[in-house]
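Can't paste images in this forum, so I'm doing it all in text. The chain is below; anyone willing to post the predicted structure tokens underneath?
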Amino acid sequence: MLEWFLDHFDTGTIMTPLIYVLNGPNLNLLGKRQPHIYGHETLADVEADCRKLAGSLGLDMRFHQSNREYEIIDWVHEARETASGIVINPAAFTHTSVAILDALNAFDHPIIEVHISNVHKREEFRHHSFISPIASGVIAGFGTQGYQLAIQRLATLIKSAKA
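Text version of the structure:
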């Protein structure tokens, strides 16, 4: 009990829950790469929208993107010690990365998987996700609005876990 108290209170005030929003390979090209599939918003636009929403929901947020699998794994490990939830768009790593799955399996809080496109309307290999079986929810095909939906759901899950 004392450990929980020390983790959640700072000089008598409740600490703002922290979430991570993690993005996989090629999402740095959002708005430039295949806009007919992924839209015209940039990753910077998505980050700004996520920050605004997270703040309005009483959440602090770390937003990262990498084309390197190990960096995503390192952020998941970091989140284990600091975060109340993760929103992850693993991009192509969705279909290939047992290593990211293993890292997420060690995370004891809600995980929401996001995909900008509807992966089930695309190539067959995109229909399988290593992440989906451990995710609290999966959002696909809502464009970049999927991030907003994921953050809203994560806020609900975090709030209900504290109740």
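Helices lie at 2-8, 35-38, 43-56, 69-82, 98-105, 145-162. The radius of gyration is 16 Å.
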